[in-house]
Amino acid sequence: MNRKISLVLLFLIIALCCLIEMAESADVTKSSLSSSSPKPKPKPEVGAGAAVHIIYTEKPQDEQPEAYHLRTLASVLGSEEAAKDALIYSYKTAASGFSAKLTPEQVAEISKQPGVLQVIPSRTLQLHSGPGNLH
Description:
Elements: H1 2-33, E1 51-57, H2 65-77, H3 80-86, E2 87-91, E3 97-102, H4 104-111, E4 116-121
Antiparallel strand pairs: 1-3, 1-4, 2-3
Helix pairs in contact: 2-3
Keywords: Signal
Pfam families: Inhibitor_I9
Protein name: Pectinesterase
């Protein structure tokens, strides 16, 4: 039974990494195609030493996933506005969780929150460098 759960979790993590990579690739493609459109405003720094982390949570029962993710993040950052500034993406389909820019202290604090299952640093994996240049 534990082996099945481990395999399912591994599959979910791999699927989530693939979704992140596809989303980042789509953003790069979109920005290169529309160079004449205004650039999006970068999110403000949350604090010194902040880095993007993926926070896996239990699936919320009585509220929308993004509202639950913002509430969880606000409990650590102190306000809903700070949570909105730090939130990068809310995952709702294959897994429940969100990505946010957090300091090491905030990572330690959010890890203790009810409903938070796991907090991991976000990584970008490059699968290949372009057509014909597979690695």
